[in-house]
Amino acid sequence: MLVILDEKIKVGAIFNINGQIKPVWFKFKDTKIFIKSLIYQWKEREGSDTIYKFTATDGVNIYEIFYSKNNLEWRLVAMDEK
Q1: For residues 27 and 13, is the Cβ–Cβ distance under 8 A?
Q2: Residue 39 in contact with residue 56, Cβ under 8 Å?
Q3: In this predicted model, what pLDDT tens digit does every residue of 32-45 receive, in sequence order?
């Protein structure tokens, strides 16, 4: 079932020298969720901001998270619970 959340989250991520971002884990409701694999990633423009979006899985559930370059903020957009 798809659950829309749009909540601010803490994320552990790797920012490489080519400007690529790879989220490794995130914290949601006091639970640290480790990302097993990225299913899809893309970026979008919202005015002057660049939004980096990721569809990821922990091997059980699927999550959509994003990073705002201007706000330096991570958000959990939605979660598809199995």
Answers
A1: no
A2: yes
A3: 999 999 999 999 99
